[in-house]
Amino acid sequence: MPDWLWQLGLQVDELDIAYNRLSGRIPNSLGFLSAFAVDLSSNLFEGPLPLWSSNMGRLYLRDNMFSGPIPDDIGK
Question: Keyword Magnesium: yes or no (predicted)?
Answer without folding.
Answer: no
